[in-house]
Fold each of these.
Amino acid sequence: MAKLITVFGATGSQGGGVANALLEDPEFKVRIVTRSASSAKAKALQERGAEVVEGSYDDPSSLERALTGAYGTYIMTQQYFELPDWDQLEIKQGKAVADAAKAAGVQHVVFSSLEDVQKLAGFPCLHFETKARIEEYMRSIELPATYIMFPAYYDNYLTVFKPRQVEDGTYELGWTMEGAPMQGIAVPDAGFAIRGILKNRAEWLGRTVGLCAENITIQEHADILSKHLAPKVFKPTKMTSDAFSKLPFPGAKHLGDMFKFYRVGNPDRSAELTRQLYPGTRSLDQWMADNKEALLNVLASDKTAGKAQYVK
């Protein structure tokens, strides 16, 4: 009998990757939780066989409906930098869904967590630490869980971290890594790796799994993009993470702290372990080969690419 997995955030990038991977495997049935069952992304998943439940972390009855009968669940929480006290809201919502999963008797929770940067590196990165607090709570109530940690997304080149054309006609990549390497992955590939975890509860229960495909510099990113999109030329930004923190948009400080942690904190992500879970995990070079036309279309349609905020 197929195991029912409730996926939160399935109309977004990360949860969508998990839902899509599970829908390709007859071992699983998928239930997605969304604020709007009528959205295009929810309908697309429904057409592929997903059950759609309207719900919210702020509505306990909807969490009960979403988790009743589920063998497993994929949980991710979001930060809304534009809201006051967003960090406390995220922690509150994470604890609420953890309590609901415990009450429903879910056998395998997979939670998208992140590091306690203040504890590890000695400086804050608030939107990482909110997830660390939620993980601490899940462990304290002995939730049967596996904890996933994502790196940067290659897919953000198509959305919220688009290359920005500068005055000389070249394109600037805005990851402020100051020459250091950065771990990355394609979100759909991570979804298949997470499916591997859900397929083998006994092996992965209680563990923390850091996902990535590779760890390369932004200059290497630029070289790969330049190769695939020639004659366009790409280069890394010269901006520092401290300068990024001072940009005038909500969340800039927290994202600048994230880049600093990526640069100096040595986040624990394993390409070997990720490929153990999903041998098809692609390098950036392979991902670019698959997404060349999509990125060309983005660059052609958005002359102000890269000026929007990056959202983790």
Amino acid sequence: MDLRQFLMCLSLCTAFALSKPTEKKDRVHHEPQLSDKVHDDAQSFDYDHDAFLGAEEAKSFDQLTPEESKERLGMIVDKIDADKDGFVTEGELKSWIKHAQKKYIYDNVENQWQEFDMNQDGLISWDEYRNVTYGTYLDDPDPDDGFNYKQMMVRDERRFKMADKDGDLIATKEEFTAFLHPEEYDYMKDIVVQETMEDIDKNADGFIDLEEYIGDMYSHDGNADEPEWVKTEREQFVEFRDKNRDGKMDKEETKDWILPSDYDHAEAEARHLVYESDQNKDGKLTKEEIVDKYDLFVGSQATDFGEALVRHDEF
């Protein structure tokens, strides 16, 4: 499967995804964990290193001396200080941690960017995306793979327009990221809910009833006996999903299901790092305060951010 076919499948993956009769499809979008380490500063700062740098990037600090680590950390602080006022606030630190947490998303966008930016102007227009993604597929009224490409294109265009904040049908990298990963952006969450409901709401009445909910996850496929997890999901629907007990989920109930308000680990970690490093207790950090606590932030090593900084790349 080439990139265009992959993206077309991704566009409606929830609608067309195939699953085994006893395989559960999970539509819920949870925040990725900051680290799989135990958060116990009395034992080590490994959790904090993973949270601040990203688990993979944290490993590359191992080869650096404390002096090198402090130097690189100082350069990272300059990037975290978004408003360039000489201080790192809890909010700026939270944004950095979230960026590290979701670096795989930005890497995914970066890997696709050149494919779609056909005129190399640093932007992706809707026409560029449509031409690269769909090309001549729209001319085939009966494609072999069974996909309705015109329907998919309409859906993509709607999402593209929502991601495009200024309405010029030209996406910046941030807008293109919102288009490809809408669940990561607050202003895109309505389209995630809308697309989910369109996938599951087979009778198109604007609601998801119990059988539609179960049918999206499980196909009987001639089997009379449901797996135990299906019975549990029926109970979950009645007890927790259908909050007003009317037998179906509306948009708000669907949003609570697929986009739950999880505990904000990035916010908690930012608060922790500020508390541990803020020597004068003014609620914000100077570069000196952060570097003084380099063992908390990065240990005696630095990051792929460190390697990136050597290459003068932007994280």
